[in-house]
Amino acid sequence: MSVSVWVLCPSVLWLDSDFTLTENTLDCGLGIAALRAALNTKPAFVLRGLCSVFYSNFMHEMECRVLSIQSHVVRGYVGNKSASFPLQVLGFEVDSINSVQFSNHTGYSHWKGQVLTADELHVLYEGIKLNNVHHYDYVLTGYTRDTSFLEMVVDIVQELKRANPNLVYVCDPVLGDHGSMYVPENLHPVYKNKVVPVADIITPNQFEAELLTGKNISTEKDAVEVMDLLHKMGPDTVVITSSDLPSRLGDRFLVSLGSQRTCKLMPDGTKSTQRVRMEIPKVDAVFVGTGDLFAAMLLAWTHHYPNDLKTACEKTFSVMHHVIKRTISYAHELAGPGRKPSPPQLELRMVQSKADIEDPAIVMEATVLTL
Amino acid sequence: MECRVLSIQSHVVRGYVGNKSASFPLQVLGFEVDSINSVQFSNHTGTYNVEQGYVEEFALTQNPLRPSGYTRDTSFLEMVVDIVQELKRANPNLVYVCDPVLGDHGSMYVPENLHPVYKNKVVPVADIITPNQFEAELLTGKNISTEKDAVEVMDLLHKMGPDTVVITSSDLPSRLGDRFLVSLGSQRTLMPDGTKSTQRVRMEIPKVDAVFVGTGDLFAAMLLAWTHHYPNDLKTACEKTFSVMHHVIKRTISYAHDLAGPGRKPSPPQLELRMVQSKADIEDPAIVMEATVLNL
């Protein structure tokens, strides 16, 4: 559907744009999209006054640079492929170091490619440093299989933090899921003792949260205690992306929890902690790359809502919902009725979800836990 | 839109050349981009540390539309040709977009032995090429001093294979004076009666007082996109493509000067393309220059 939008602003400047609307952007998205296009394509000075009335801060030109150290696949969306486009679409500068280059993710029948060694990672970082451009606002990492590579990542993060003490390290501590590890066991102590202590935001699943803290999660209370233990290890923001806790909405839902220690101090001098809980609809398919997209989007939305984990989570989980819904719908079309979609068919519909990434309609609410 | 591009180009950690320059804009325009990184460097070699004295130009390879870009190695280039040929057997409608990067301003900046590979193997399987004047002359063995020469060179290039040729920049004198350079394009299409008709266009492009890296890669990617949307209308495809380039470059140079400060020449890091910031221009470029259709 193609719509022409005209915006008349006080100084009699006509603007027009053609938009393709998805069903998610019909209401306020229309106005926002028009203003966004107007800001970027016409002399903006007249419009900024008008738009700032309507707009939150994220349409001012953002200067935020992310260093993302993840896998690259030729085809499909995992690692850097999953993280870069959405972050760029949201206005982040993304510098990316590809830890591997594979034809596709390893869930396919076949995969081929090359890996980057810890030394090669170091060489690339040195190149950036030599040019004195090693100033980052964020570092983002995910799936790694090699302890020396991971240790090199930690060295790099520490050095970057010395260059910019405000740097935020977003880390997905990928260890395993559903009770078993899917990386070499010797990565566990490296994450526990070296990586997590320098991380600011982590996105473990239940298994990883339990493994890192040595404590099991059977109840919401357990989960809160585990997140507090994780805070003690370093990160001020923890999101347990999925758990087996029973959802209030029944067994078609899973529970995610988040916890953020803020700078606000309680009367007794301790840090105030906001804890949230979300009921997430389960999807009957195995996706790859969703964890990477999640970490990237949590980076983006905590950037825009630094002291509001509730909103950051609602935005992040909502984006995931839109992308996954579009993906599974398309995958079923490709596979045909009654047939299970294959890994290539289940590749995230990333490019097609651009509008949802830019401005996700909130489709789930986070409950703030009062404890 | 279901359009999948295979892009075989360089990757840089920081900045915008090669795949970094091509992927985001194509994705923003709705293309699926599969990217094979021919190298992984910290940043481009043309500007940061002056290890080498030239500017790298990378192009994309795409599937079905493929730009191919900067390569320094004949065996790599020959492998690219093999892959293109195999992909064309799988999809005869595949369009190979190739930037035949050889050099500029009278001298080669890749090894000389790439020249015969481009001439004899690559260009013959390409559908769209984006040479500069030097590369067009080198590939055809004919000099360009007048517009007539340029048209003849483009016809020679058509004979070699590609139905679409854009000479991205030339030394021809512009009608608008010396603050402008001349670009030319030529597209052969098949008429219903079986004959071939050729549309030729000319554009006067404002010169910019800076050295950019990655612009050739962005150009090839955007030409891919806009010829995809306007397959029989080179005039419009060129207007869109050159207009995007204009918006991105203008934003970049403006920001670079802000960073450098008054009276100071911006550095290479400061001149990195403002790609992410140009998203709206990429999605829907306002047309800021007109292509003249040549009547010949």
Describe the model.
Chain A: Belongs to the pyridoxine kinase family. Chain A: It comes from Oncorhynchus tshawytscha. The complex is a heterodimer of chains A (371) and B (296). Chain A is globular, with a radius of gyration of 21 Å. In chain A, the strands form three sheets. In chain A, strands 5-4-3-6-7-10-11-12-13-14 form a ten-stranded mixed sheet, with helices on both faces. A two-stranded antiparallel ribbon of chain A has the order 1-2. A two-stranded antiparallel ribbon of chain A has the order 8-9. Chain A has 371 residues and is α/β, with parallel strands linked by helices. Chain A has eleven helices and 14 strands. In chain A, helix 3 packs parallel to helix 9, helix 7 crosses helix 8 and helix 9 runs antiparallel to helix 10. Chain A has two domains: 57 residues, no CATH class; 306 residues, Ribokinase (UDP-N-acetylmuramoyl-L-alanine:D-glutamate ligase, 3-Layer(aba) Sandwich). The N terminus of chain A is likely disordered. Chain B is of the alpha/beta class and 296 residues long. Chain B is 36% helix and 20% strand. In chain B, helix 1 runs parallel beside helix 6, helix 2 runs parallel beside helix 3 and helix 4 packs across helix 5. At the A-B interface, helix 1, helix 3, strand 4 and helix 4 of A face helix 1, strand 2 and helix 8 of B.
